[in-house]
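Entry:
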Amino acid sequence: MNITRLEQIAEVFGIEAIELLGMADKNMFNLSCTSSCTNYCTNTIEMHNTYTNTQSIETKSEIEKLQLMLQLKDKEIELKEEKIRHLTEVVELLKAKDSL
């Protein structure tokens, strides 16, 4: 199957030819090019590398964002626990005052 045909099939499905080849899912395959499509193959592989790098950066960014959210939640929990301790002390002081 030639590259042009793959592009046509991909267009029908509304996806990139690279996705038809399974490169987006880290699959292994053997792609042999004739001299007429060598530039296309090189460009396709470069597009895949750019796509993979972008996806990797987005994933790292999302992980960092989630880690910051977890740190914020931990801090909120810590502050709420401290508030509970202070309110418990106030209640104990009020009880002690009433018993006098």
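The chain has one domain: 3-99.
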